[in-house]
From TrEMBL:
This is Subtilisin-like protease SBT5.6. The keyword Nuclease does not apply. The keyword Signal applies. It comes from Spinacia oleracea. Keywords: Signal. It comes from the Eukaryota. Residues 47-124 form the Inhibitor I9 domain. The gene is LOC110802928. Residues 1-24 form the signal peptide.
């Protein structure tokens, strides 16, 4: 029997409830800005999930996260280019393409709780197409 604990459910909900940042919100010149603003690095950027404290009451989540991200990537335009998702339901944070140097800087920022590399995992298929064998 497979057991699912509460953290698995919370993580699933947090990753399922995302707000994609559309390409129409990204400007074509932001790629140049990111290249100029980001520290020179031989390491490629990977996708990281950044968990943060809740923004102040009434604050816009995306603006709050863009402000945090722009402080390490060099500009708001570079932050918009790097930002992938904004999490605001079960967890507060965002996912973004970052270099290891940017991750190191971001981890030191006030309000940043944790930065983890994003991993794609494969769930085990449910045998017979039902969930009868799963314990919740």
């Amino acid at each position: 029997m497979m057991q699912i604990n509460q953290w698995t459910i919370i993580l699933f909900i947090a990753l399922s409830i995302t707000i994609p940042i559309s390409n129409s919100q990204k400007s074509s010149s932001s790629t140049v800005a990111m290249a100029e603003a980001a520290p020179a690095s031989s390491a490629p950027a990977d996708v990281y999930i950044v968990y943060t404290e809740q923004p102040a009451e009434g604050s816009d989540h995306e603006s709050f996260h863009l402000s945090t991200l722009s402080s390490v990537v060099g500009s708001e335009e570079a932050a918009k280019e790097s930002l992938i998702y904004v999490y605001k339901s079960a967890a507060t944070g965002f996912s973004a393409k970052l270099t290891p140097e940017q991750v190191s800087l971001l981890e030191k920022k006030p309000g940043v709780l944790q930065v983890v590399v994003s991993k794609t995992v494969q769930l085990h298929p449910v045998v017979g197409g039902t969930m009868n064998n799963m314990m919740v």
